[in-house]
Each structure stands twice: as C-alpha cells, then as structure tokens.
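2.7 Reproducibility. Because tokenized structures are sensitive to small changes in the input, we list the exact sequence used for Lipoprotein, including any N-terminal residues retained from the expression construct. No trimming or masking was applied before prediction.
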Amino acid sequence: MRILILALALSTLGGCALWMPSPDPSQAWVELVPSGETELKAVAVDEKPLDDHRYFQVTPGSHQLGMRYRFEVGAANVGRDSETLERDCRLTLDYDGFSAGERYRLVAGGYGFRPWARLYDERNQLLAKASERGCGGVAAR
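Resulting structure tokens (single pass, no recycling of outputs):
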C-alpha cells in the first residue's frame, strides 16, 4: 500500500512540471513550436527576462520576443567524415500587432548552420520572421 501511495505522489509531482497556466484573455498567448528534436525557449519580452521559458504571454500591441534555439547541424552540412554539431542560437522577433485573447505560434527550425523562427496567427498566416542575434556551439544538452 505504501508503494502505491508513493508512486501516486511521485506521478502527481511530475505532472506539475508539465502544467501550463491558463491563457489570460486580456493578453496574447504565444506557443513555442520547435521542429523535430530541437529546443526552443522563451527568454525575454521587450528585453526583460522571463521566469517561465515555455511560452510568451504579452499585452496587446508591439513587442520584441527574445528566444533561444538549440539544434543539431547534420554531418552533411558540416563536411565529409564530420560529426554532427550542436548550435545554440539567440533570436529576436518584433511584431506590432499582438491582440488580446489571440493565440500565436512561434515555429523554429534550422537550415544548415542558420536558425529561423516565424510567428503565425490562429489562421496559420505568417506575421513576422525572427532575426538571428548570435550562435555558438554547445558541449552538451
């Protein structure tokens, strides 16, 4: 019986880490969508650091979103007989039309050594593209 209670308690704690807050209807919600086995994190809004790196929630209007994108560059893009390289990049995206209650998707990926990120609305219309602010290699994930 103790094992069952312990297992139940541990599984409940694990679920808390995955919990996302409910979107505030007076703000815009930006969902992060990395491609494949990559990592996309929310870093800042208007150059102010965020506490939660899983999403952006912003007031209506104009904002600059800062993000960090980690991805692998395949051996085919590096050179013959090379190993896969990992890249850790910073990107920013400026958009002046965030609306209260709207949901947006920030999709990220990479072409060779270059990262990209694009903002889409609920109707899947492209709204803005991010700018690369610098990249480096990473030793471990």
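The first strand starts at residue 28 and ends at 34.
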